[in-house]
Amino acid sequence: EGILKKDAGYYILKAPLKKGELWEFSHSGFKGKITITDILSELKVRNNTFKNCIITEEIIDGQNILLRTYYAAGVGPVIIEQYSISDKNQDLILKAELLGYSFADTSGASD
Length: 111
Known about the structure:
Blueprint (H helix, E strand, L loop, with lengths): L1 E4 L4 E5 L7 E6 L2 E16 L2 E13 L4 E8 L3 E11 L2 E9 L14
Antiparallel strand pairs: 1-2, 3-4, 4-5, 5-6, 6-7, 7-8
């Protein structure tokens, strides 16, 4: 169904994964919306190239913050950007990039 932000009780990524999809959330008196703003066939982050990526934008009503997250299929978030927004201007205040990743060995083989 999607990726649930468990402590907040709402989905930060939700099917169907199509550009323009939007869902609203409400938690602890806060309301907001998340939109899938783009789908990229490829995204380069540092020394890694990721295929089939989704970009979401999360805005909480009454706050001047936009959270843009880039998700890579099979990996998860690879870039997170936080912007201060005012009068149609967006100023980047935080950017986090995935430095590396690995997958656990699920084959059951042992040395």
